[in-house]
Amino acid sequence: MSDDKKYILAIDQGTTSSRAILFDHSGQIVSTGQLEHEQIFPRAGWVEHDPKEIWYNTREAIGQALSRANINRHQIAAVGITNQRETAVVWDKTTGEPVYNAIVWQDTRTQKICDRLAGDEGDEKYKERVGLPLATYFSGPKITWILENVDGAKEKAEKGDLLFGNTDSWLVWNLTGGVNGGVHVTDVTNASRTMLMNIDTLDWNADIAADMGIPLSMLPEIKSSSEVYGHGAKESLLIDTPIAGILGDQQAATFGQACFEVGQAKNTYGTGNFMLINTGEELVRSENGLLTTVCYKIGDNKPIYALEGSIAVTGSLVQWVRDNLGLIKDAPEIEKLAEKVEDNGGAYVVPAFSGLFAPHWDASARGAIVGLTRYITKNHIARAVLEATAFQSREVLDAMNADSGVELTELKVDGGMVKNELLMQFQADMIGVPVVRPKVIETTALGAAYAAGIAVGFWDGEQDVIDNWDEDKRWEPSMDEETRERYLRLWKKAVERTRGWMDEDVDALYG
Ligand SMILES: Nc1ncnc2c1ncn2[C@@H]1O[C@H](COP(=O)(O)OP(=O)(O)OP(=O)(O)O)[C@@H](O)[C@H]1O
Ligand SMILES: [Mg+2]
User: Domains of the chain (ranges plus CATH)?
Assistant: First the structure.
């Protein structure tokens, strides 16, 4: 390791923004660049991003991070990438142009395609092979939608001109030169979210791709999460710099939280919430609505698996309160409103905006606020909004305990919402075990940095991650059991009210 290379650059391409974060050898943040991108909602249930905007923002964020630390690429040992998973980009490799906007993981437009694929076999048709139920969440059916609905796309794809990727692949292809020799790769964690990868052998499943009408030539090469995939393109800020780590955002956070032992888990509170528990080399199949996913794979080592509970809407509910209702000016303000009242006053918000994800997987649900009376103020709603995140996380934790057969004794948390102390206390109260926040809550970027740094020898391995992890604060549960159980029963009742909302009438009027 030469002295002039002292940092790892992590690119965190998230649902709401793209960040570039420079980490030093002790795992501390040196500088950050960040730009938000537009959330495009063409109709109810549709969510899109502009892939070009994401690429330009990423480039600019890299520039910000480098200039704010006043360094150039000679001091960057490697670049790691982490990304919003499942979001599908399809682009023309001859022009570098996307053929359609990125279809975001929250988008529900592929429900009919999923129903068609399920046929008589139901939504567990591919579960044995890919670890996932058929749901609009995953990338595969989104590719099908683009090929079936964008003029000329199918023909171009069959000719071999189109490439697919989650945003990791899209960025690596562009970073390494795009039309001039860009490499088309992804890592095992991202691939495990497409519904197209065999979860045991880690290669593409040709039969499922054929069912979905996806030519194999569109799919990126599947690599480990930690190896050199390529180098920054000539005439770019990162010229000749190794791109050496890729992890889906939730797997990256699991890595950054040093959950390397079987049974260790973390919960990330961002746009949605995602709880992952490390199951080691064993591939555990859930009986309680969790997903089987690849956690990480370091170079030639065996893959490590995880069980995941995905919740679609948590932090984005706060954004909705800010942007669509205008009750708050920024996200932290929700805590100030919530603090003004003792409890939710009887109101429950179930944010089933994309149906219900884990552990219910009910595509027919839509959001509801229940328990309303003339008594309820915006303060109660603010509180109910925060509590919704804690209730949903408790449901996922129950599923995890049931699947793994062991009870978690504490919960490591990270992500933007964990600055919210009221939420953290209520979370501890709802799960009955301590909630623990690390010093670095940008664990997503940190995990990607470690994956890249390990690949080039900047760090030796997982032990460095463990040594660098440091606790910031913990919240102990303080609610009595009976009160907690009452809350949970009311939450479950509220959830039941949201089911079955989608029907022909909704389709005809708003579809
Ligand atoms: N103090 C707060 N209280 C409640 N929610 C908050 C607070 N601060 C941020 N949030 C919410 O946290 C989310 C941002 O968290 P984070 O930055 O981890 O997400 P993200 O990484 O941008 O998500 P993604 O990776 O999906 O883009 C936003 O949805 C925001 O509404
Ligand atoms: Mg994120």
Answer: 1-87+167-197+222-511 (3.30.420.40)
